[in-house]
Amino acid sequence: MKASSLIRALDERVGGARFLDRAMRKAFNNHWSFLLGEIALYAFVVVLVTGVFLTFFFKPGMKEVVYDGAYVPLRGVMMSEAYASSLEISFDVRGGLLMRQMHHWSTLIFLGGIVVHLLRNFFTGSFRKPRELNWLIGVALFGLVMLNGLFGYSLPDDLLSGAGLRILHGVLVSVPLVGTYLAMFLFGGEFPGQDIIPRLYSLHVLLIPGLLLVLIPLHAVVLTWRQTHTQFREKGVRNHQVSGAPFFPAFIAKTAAYLLWVAGVVALLATVFQVNPIWLYGPYVPSTVSAGSQPDWYMGFLEGALRLMPPWEFTAFGYTVTMSVLIPALVAPGLLFTGLALYPFVERRLTRDRAVHNLLDRPRDVPRRTGIGVAGIVYYGVLWTAGGNDVIAANFHISLYATTWIFRIALLLGPVVAFEITRRLCLALQERDRRLIEHGVETGLIVRGPGGEYTEVERPLTEEERAVLADPAPKPVTR
Fold it and tell me: Where is the Cytochrome b/b6 N-terminal region profile domain (predicted)?
C-alpha cells in the first residue's frame, strides 16, 4: 500500500488531516524573544531523558549500608541506600556522572527559561484576553517545577540536601493546627524518618512529571494553536493579522535546531562545570550542618526570607505560633505566586479593558505595569541575595547583623524605589519617542545658516519606524 493511501485510510477512520494541514500552515512570529519559551521546553526534554536514565540505577531507600564503592574517602562509612546509589551512579556507572550533571543543569536551565519567558510575557502584556488561562497554567508550571526541583535535589540524601529537608520539616511543623499532621504525612514520623526519600521519589518521578506532561502540551501546543499568535507592532500589522513564517518547514527547522543547541549547551555545562558534588558533602547526619550551605538558585529567595525575618512568635490557647517561619515560608512565596496569578485580572478590572489583544505592548508604553514588574524583580533579587548573607559577610568582612539589616531595609525600600525610577524612565522614553515623531532622527550633521547659527540636520522617520512609535494603543479586536 502506498503511503498516501495509508494516510488517506487513517484520515477516513480517525480524522485529523484537516487540523494537521492548518497546523502546518500556522504562522509563527520571527522575533527572537518568542523562542525564549523554547529554552524551557527543550530543557524539560533533556530533564526527562536524563531522568529516565537515572531511575535505572537510583535506589530510593533509607536503609543503612556500608559503602564499598569506587570513591575511596567514603569507603567503610555508614550511609543510606539512596546516597550509596547516588555515589554509584557518579563513579561506577559509565556515563552516570555526566547524566547526573546534565539532569541537574537542565533543571536549572528549565527554571531559568520559565522565568525569562514569564517576564517577557508580563512586560509585553501577552497575558491579556484571550490568554489569561495560558498565563495561569504558566504560573502553575513555575510552582510545580520549583517544587519538583526541591524534591529531586533532596533525593541523594547528602549533607547539603538533608539540611534543606530539615528546613522543610520545620516549615511544615510551624503551620498552625495542621502542621504536625503535614509533617507526619510527608516524613512518616519524626525527622528524618525512614519514609521521606521513597515518598519524595514517588512525587518526583510520577506525580509532578505526570502533571507537567499534561500542562506543558496544554500550555505550549493546544491553547497556542487555538489562539492567534501575539506579535510586536510593525508596519502593515493589525490586531487581527499574523505576520511570520509557517510552522512547516520554517519554524520546525528552526525549533529542531534550537533543541540541538539546548541539549548541546547542557552537555557542555555538564562536562566542563561541576555541579552538586555530593561526594564532597558526605551522607546526611542530623547533627551536622556544613558551613556556607546554599540551595539551588530558584530556592534562594525562600532561604533569604527565612534569614531576614526577625524572631517573632506568640502563644495563643497554649500553642506557640512561630511567625519567623510562617511569614517567610508562606507569605514570601504567596506574594510572588498570588501576585503573578491575579495580576491579569486586577489590571483588566482597573483599566476596564476587556478587548482581545494580539498586538504586544512595548514596556515603555505601560509605565505602571513595567514599574510593578521591575519592583517584583527587585523584591525577588533582594531575597535571593540575602540567602547568602553569611557568605557575603565572611568574604567582605562585614558584620552579619549589619548585612542582615541592610537587606531588610532594601527589601522594604528597594521595590518602591525601583517602581518609581522605572516609571519615570518609561515616561522619559515616551517623551523621546514623541520628539522623534515631531522632529525626526538626529543625523549628527551640523550646518551653518545664513545668519551664522548652527543647526543639526534631522531626517524624517521612515514609515517602518513611525509604525512602531506612532500608535502606542492600537484599536483591539472587540469580539
Answer: 6-232
